Structures are given as structure tokens and as C-alpha cells.
Prior knowledge:
Elements: H1 12-21, E1 34-39, E2 45-49, H2 62-72, E3 78-85, H3 95-104, E4 105-114, E5 120-124, H4 125-128
Parallel strand pairs: 3-4
Antiparallel strand pairs: 1-2, 1-3, 4-5
Amino acid sequence: MTASAPPAIAPTAVVGELRRLLAHSHAPYSGVHVAAAVECPDGQVRYGVNVENAAYPQGVCAEASAISAAVTQGQKSLKRVWLASSLPGFIWPCGGCRQKIWEFAETGCEVVSIAADGSTEVQTIEALLPLGFRLEPKVSRTPPDRA
């Protein structure tokens, strides 16, 4: 997999907030703290952290947490995903999170990994998940009025 050119500079506010939120991550088993931000087409940014659980499959990845925060606020599309961790190098979403990002990603959605030294590397979701898929929803994505 080859990386595309990183953005000129990651937005300072997003990077700063990701670094701050690493302390909120709950990672008592792996010790790897991860924070994610999802940027929606209207510029809104939502954040999440990983939350581990002793029953490992029940934990929540930072990417899934951030996507859930965006969906909770009514967002259904992602322009960019930012990742930071307590590890020194770059990190990339696990397979499940790649599919979760794909579900909401605009074409060309960037996934930006931020290393501890502040350097960035960028991949599109299409590069990270070359054969991603979407299903046609059986029900409307818009909930009925409850008037």
C-alpha cells in the first residue's frame, strides 16, 4: 500500500484535541490509547476514543466511537478521519473500522494517521479497503415523524 502525500499541515485544533483525548481512552489491557476524529462535509468534527473491555470483542475502537458521535448528531457522511495513538508510529484502522468508515465515507475520504512526532501519513479509504461494500438499506434512513 502506498501513501498519498500528506496534507500540508493537520489542523492544529484537531491534532491538539486528539492528543488531549488520548488520556480519556480506556486501555488497561493493551496499553494502547487511541483517539479519532471524523470530519463531516459541513466541517463539523466529532471525536471518540477506544474503550477496552475484559471481554475483548466488546471493546469499542476510537474510530467507531467517533463515527457514533457523528451519527448521534445527525451526520451520515464522512470527508476525513484523523487518528492518533500512544504508539510512536503511524496507526491505521482495523478491518472492522475500515468497513465502518466505508459505510459513511464520501468518495476519496481521507484517513490521516498522526505519529507521536506530529508527522502525518494519508490513505484514502479506497486504498485501505479496496473491495469495501455497501448494502441497500431495507428501510428508510430517515426516521418517520413522531408528531
